[in-house]
Amino acid sequence: MDMYPLKAPDAMQLAAAFRWAAELPSGYEFVSLDGTLRRAAAASGFTVLPADLS
Predict the structure, then answer these.
(1) Interval 2-21: pLDDT, tens
(2) What is the 3-state secondary structure (H, E, C) of the chain?
(3) For the chain, N or C: smaller number of CB within 10 Å?
(4) Whole-angstrom distance, CA of residue 12 vs CA of residue 6
(5) Is residue 35 domain-resident?
(6) Is residue 45 in a domain?
(7) pLDDT by residue (tens digit) across 18-51?
(8) Torsion angle of C-alpha atoms 20, 22, 27, 31, degrees rounded to 10
(9) pTM (2 decimals)?
């Protein structure tokens, strides 16, 4: 998780989700409205929701 410029609470959220997904996030969904956290979750392999923020 050191590779993403996240604030501590966001890093904790992503780390918890990653752990919950047994470190295999493919096929798991991650919900966030924060752009940086969304990019980090997608780069980690999660399907990020909502799909479109426009």
Answers:
(1) 678 999 999 999 999 999 99
(2) CCCCCCCHHHHHHHHHHHHHCCCCCCCCEEECCCHHHHHHHHHHCCEEECCCCC
(3) C
(4) 9
(5) yes
(6) yes
(7) 999 998 999 999 999 999 999 999 999 999 999 9
(8) 20
(9) 0.87
